[in-house]
Design brief:
This protein is an alpha/beta fold. The chain contains six helices and ten strands; from the N terminus they run E-H-E-E-H-E-H-E-E-H-E-H-H-E-E-E. Strands 1-8-2-3-7-4-6-5-9-10 form a ten-stranded mixed sheet, sandwiched between helices. A hairpin with a 6-residue loop joins strand 9 and strand 10. It comes from Christiangramia crocea. This is Threonylcarbamoyl-AMP synthase.
Length: about 210
């Protein structure tokens, strides 16, 4: 089955398009969508067979995968993350929405497949399309980058080329315009001092 390419505008995502994407996710479909950095590959966090499909595509074991959770905002953080202190919350508040992935201590309400995780990566991208999808779905989407490090950059930034490459692996490719080719900055907040794991698009001067 070929992937459908749907054009959605970041300034004003059309509700009917968002609903269509949400519908596909609820049925266990895989979607490639824009963020404020690289295009991401995602599925419904509560759908185990969809999660397994992504793990297979990325060639990793699901339990050991380091997929991040894309949230709409910080309001449902407590569902997936242990109680965090004020200093940590202030950093999150200052940086999100934005091009960061924060490693936080995993909570007790994680979906079963992630239960053994000590930590989770949380993303709140500064992109209205993916946040509208999460809002419509009612829970986060699990996300991983579509980029391979040894690959031609256009394949991760041009929606037409992304669709060409991923055509038989996903259900929908959202065309939200050209993507960026710099990944998010990853910061670990589970240690005493914040640790920068990967410097990407987000400035580390905010720490």
């Amino acid at each position: 089955m070929a992937a459908e390419l749907i054009r959605i505008y970041d300034e004003n995502p059309a509700p009917k398009h968002i609903s269509k994407v949400v519908e596909v996710l609820k049925k266990g479909g895989l979607v490639i969508y824009p963020t404020d950095t690289i295009y991401g590959l995602g599925c419904d966090i509560t759908n185990v067979s969809a999660l397994e499909k992504i793990a297979q595509i990325k060639n990793v074991k699901l339990e050991k995968s380091n997929f991040s959770f894309v949230c709409e905002d910080l309001s449902n953080l407590s569902d997936y993350v242990k109680q965090i202190d004020t200093a940590t919350f202030k950093i999150l508040k200052r940086c999100l929405p934005g091009p960061y992935t924060f490693i936080l201590p995993g909570g007790n309400n994680l979906p079963n497949v992630f239960k053994k995780r000590k930590t989770v990566g949380i993303r709140v991208p500064d992109n209205n399309i993916c946040r509208a999808i999460v809002n419509g779905l009612g829970n986060p989407i699990v996300s991983t980058s579509i980029r391979d490090d040894d690959e031609v950059l256009e394949y991760g930034t041009d929606p037409e080329l992304i669709r060409e490459k991923w055509n038989n692996l996903v259900d929908i490719v959202i065309d939200g315009g050209y993507g960026d080719n710099i990944p998010s900055t990853v910061i670990d907040l589970t240690t005493e001092e914040p640790q920068v794991i990967r410097e990407g698009k987000g400035s580390v001067d905010i720490l």
